[in-house]
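User: What would this chain look like folded?
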Amino acid sequence: MEHGFLNFILVLVLIIAAAKLSGYLSIRLKQPSVLGELLVGIILGPTVLNILGAAWLPFHEDIHLGETISFMAELGVILLMMLAGLDLHLGDLLRSGKVSALAGTTGVVMPLLLGLGTGLLFGQPLVESLFIGLALSATSVSISAQTLMELGVLRTRVGLALLGAAVFDDILVIVLLSAAVIWLGGAAAGVSSILMTIASMAGFLLVASLIGLTVLPWLARRVERLPINQGLVTFALVICLLYAWAAEEIGGMAAITGAFLVGLFLGRTPFRKQLESGIASLAYGFFVPIFFINIGLNADLTAILGPGLGFALVITVVAVVSKLAGCGLGGLWGGLSRRESLQLGIGMVSRGEVGLIVASLAMAHNAFSPANFATTVFMVIMATLVTPPLLRLTFTNLPETVAAAPQPVPVTPPPPQRIHPPT
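Assistant: Here's the prediction, encoded as structure tokens.
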């Protein structure tokens, strides 16, 4: 075997073993396993050990290793969001539309305004302050979804509102980000470009929903009858990846939105449990741990040490408070109780990869200084780290939330799985 491949599998051994061990220790400390995985990722990353660049390790000279791990991590978050969709019922999610729309909208507007104002208050240029506000507006629901699944509360009113609000958040942030980029470029056809962005999102959601509600269940039944080993799981994976690609390339949305939609659509079929079992083994056994570890592998928290530390800490506090207040108010206006609104606000705090995308785009358009990029990365990591323990704390005693949860729609038991010879 090639030396580069040997280095690759050695890194995978280290990452997966460290993720599972840290997740176990986190659970023993009565915290979600994702918290331990995030923390050990930071330890393995450039903040402490820098396993991908340390001269004392055998794979430090492999320049493609980090990119390969990142690709596998992206597959991990796609599978994670597909599982979140499979765990829900489409009807329950639609019934939470009002609170999702309100929380998603207020959860974008308030962080945007507070981030913009904080940047200007600290003497940052207008353009950089605007992109700081946009980075604060983004939400990465994958961390919260994993935590809620661990706690067994994803199908409560809060869990449903959280996932719905994340879709509204994604759409609004993409539209605002597109408008900001157009403004930077001074495009004459700015309004038409924004309208095209909105139209592409609406078109993707419409076509994806029509196909998902009519064609996908029909195809799943046909594939299940074919003499193909694990054919149904393979079919679900192919459709998930195709929707993820289409969401970003055609709809201009995050790839995880497409994966989440596939989970919702296939969750309506009699094969939901069978698909959950097959996808979960692949996701949690291999790809999802890589995703959580990779967040730390791409973050150097030492970059904000020095004069910029105070600004980074303030921005982080604003990031947490603005999502709590913005989404919490939207939850209250949508009919949630105070406790549920607090839980919803906490669930929307995590920025994850979405905030990093905003920061990277700002750097690509020379709208961010290296110091502000480092500040944004610090904010993203800190906001992501505080979300799992805060969610667990607010869900410790659940009578109010569980009582308010919608009753699950009965699911027809899947037919006995056919045993096909390997093809």
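Residues 45 and 298 are 7 Å apart (CA to CA). If you want, I can go into more detail on any region.
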